[in-house]
Amino acid sequence: MTLVKGISEMKQLSLQDEVNRRKTFAIISHPDAGKTTMTERLLLFGGAIREAGTVKGKKSGKFATSDWMEIEKQRGISVTSSVMQFDYLGHRINILDTPGHQDFSEDTYRTLMAVDSAVMMIDSAKGIEEQTIKLFKVCRMRGIPIFTFINKLDRVGKPPLELIAELEEVLGIDAYPMNWPIGMGKELLGIYDRYYKRIELFRGEGDEQYLPLNEDGEVAEDHVIKQSSLYDQALEEALLLEEAGNAYNEEKIANGTLTPVFFGSALTNFGIKTFLETFLSFAPSPQPRNSNLGKIDPAADVFSGFVFKIQANMNPAHRDRIAFVRICSGTFERGMNVTLTRMNKQIKLAQSTQFLADDRSTVQAAVSGDIIGLYDTGTYQIGDTITSGKDKLEYEELPQFTPELFMKVTAKNVMKQKHFYKGIHQLVQEGAIQLFKTYRMEDYIIGAVGQLQFEVFQYRMKQEYHTDVMMESIGSKIARWIEDGKADESLSSARSLLVKDRFDRPLFLFENDFALRWFQDKHPDISLISMLG
Ligand code: G4P
């Protein structure tokens, strides 16, 4: 993990080998499901941290170092944990953070465009929650494998069969339980492991931890666990799954239509090792990625990557931004020259950084699947491709995510209009916020997927463009683009406000679900779409 070790390893392994050992993923979940606890467990396995509680900047304040933007300090958002890299069993693992709570923003979605698989964490007592659904949809759209971990088995939760049914019904994905709880809460005895054909005991240690199953799927010896009715129940349910559940299918796991489900408890470190090792054996390494030049092989010599997130003002004194780049081919080396395709601009990548737990170290070499942070003074935009090759390579555009919060925005001081327009347009281009305009009055409406985006917008307008902005909520709205791009202004009303996005594509902002349905009933000929892929 150290730099020196990183470089010597790079020399020994071919680029293909290096790519093959990469596993780049995100953990998606609703706040409080246990994502931080799980991340810490994984980092502990990888030896990247030595104690639990290191990642959680929120309470310990370990990340409150001086060069963060104020808003981050106040909220305790961890920048350094944006990407965590560590090695485990020969794999090089990159975990990309998907901030939740009020920190939810478009960047959370965009991060999912930069991963090769996702781990979906579910609180066993709560089941499928709102934010999980939103993030799941993005993973589904990409067709990446999704691995489910049902957490907090040490507490009484919903019955496992109910959780599986909920997963399939709410998310519309087939599930294959890899293991099955034997009891839960205070009565948790262990998990019945269908995949490894063993029982993993909750309180077991060393060799005592695993009990192999015989051909009949039972523990062979006369183990005390056999006396428990919970064992009988788990066995019965496992049999039911065998007969009536989904068949195990690796192809479906790979294309994201079947999710392997693991049970466990991150807090008590139960089932995590089993999960991690199985996940690593299934999770894909970086795959060829679509571009204007066709699919690009991750082991190709030419370096390339795309910007999926821009984090601003980490150092207010220097107005720094960091552009997060997912490497899609070749090897990155510090100081290399690349072309930013959009501007046909040559850039020397002299200042780069990598994030690892609470330690920020400078990247020397990284390959496909890795994430690098490039210091940015306003050059990059979300979705930009950079490449060391001569060809004008451009990776597929990132989708525009549907905002759910909208504000009408104006400059407080009319004398500052020029700064206001400059700032807003730059921030929109950078991908910090989405901009819409009404047709007649050309009112500015900004849209976001999370409240934090508005706060960052307001803060940056003041800090960087010296403009106080006034924001006025226009209520919770549902955005739907008009598929054929034809705008009929006579259909605009307070309940279905017709606006245009920054590419002049028309869309309606509906007041609520009711207004949307009413409109659809009245105008069945107008096809409306929610997310622009
Ligand atoms: P998040 O990042 O998804 O928001 O969740 P986080 O890991 O912070 O976990 C949320 C709460 O759930 C924490 O408790 C954490 O200790 C607890 N938790 C996580 N995994 C398990 C588990 O397997 N079993 C049980 N019983 N609890 C679990 P907290 O009291 O809110 O925070 P803290 O003060 O303990 O840090």
Automatic annotation (TrEMBL):
User: Keyword set for this entry?
Assistant: Cytoplasm, GTP-binding, Nucleotide-binding, Protein biosynthesis
Provide the binding site for GTP: 29-36, 97-101, 151-154
Q: Name one Pfam family in it.
A: RF3_C
Q: What InterPro entries does the annotation carry?
A: EF-G-like_DII (IPR053905), EFG_III/V (IPR035647), G_TR_CS (IPR031157), P-loop_NTPase (IPR027417), PrfC (IPR004548), RF3_C (IPR032090), RF3_dom_3_sf (IPR038467), RF3_GTP-bd (IPR041732)
Going by the entry's taxonomy, the superkingdom of the source organism is recorded as Bacteria
Coiled-coil annotated residue ranges, if any: none
Q: What is the annotated localization of this protein?
A: Cytoplasm
- Residues forming the Tr-type G domain are 20-287
Q: Does the keyword Protein biosynthesis apply?
A: yes
NCBIfam families in the record: prfC (TIGR00503), PRK00741.1 (NF001964), small_GTP (TIGR00231)
Hey, which family's this protein in?
Belongs to the TRAFAC class translation factor GTPase superfamily. Classic translation factor GTPase family. PrfC subfamily.
Give the protein name, as stated in the record.
Peptide chain release factor 3
Whichever gene encodes this chain, its name is prfC
